[in-house]
Amino acid sequence: MHCFNHRAVAAVGICRACSKGLCPDCVNDLGHSISCHGSCETKAQTLHSQVAQNSVVLRAQRRNGFFAPAMFIVMGIAFMIYASDGRSLLNIGTVMGGSFVLFGIVLLFLMQRYARELDRKA
């Protein structure tokens, strides 16, 4: 691959912002990546900050991923308790509550599997 600006010179890397080949004269080392001089520097810095922010969000998602299943299970139990009238076990409230509990359990299983997969990749 050759430099985008200097066709006769071999490229030493690719700009993170525009993906053009860069020679040693055109390259601007940002510490975390390389970019062209000028507007690509700002774009590359923005891309770097977005990637860093994504890792923060991913860590928070691992911690908070079990609140939704717990909420569905608790709400399902509350529906079932509130709807029980003592005469019949099967009414609209207990069916809805059971559905919430079942959905919460399935969601909990899926979130645990997702968390294990993320840990395996990391």
Q: What is the overall silhouette?
A: rod-shaped
Assembly type: single chain
The residue fraction in helices comes out at: 55-70%
Structural class based on helices, strands and sheet pairing = mainly alpha
Number of helices: 3
- Tell me the number of strands: 4
Described by strand count, sense and barrel closure, the largest sheet is:
2 strands, antiparallel
- Which residue ranges are poorly predicted, with pLDDT under 50 across at least 5 consecutive positions? none
Strand order, largest beta sheet: 1-2
Describe what this molecule looks like in 3D:
This protein has 122 residues and is mainly alpha-helical. It has 2 domains: 1-58, no CATH class; 65-122. It is built from 3 helices and 4 strands. The strands form 2 sheets. The chain has a two-stranded antiparallel sheet with strand order 1-2. Helix 2 runs antiparallel to helix 3. The longest helix is centred in the last third of the chain and has 30 residues, at 92-121.
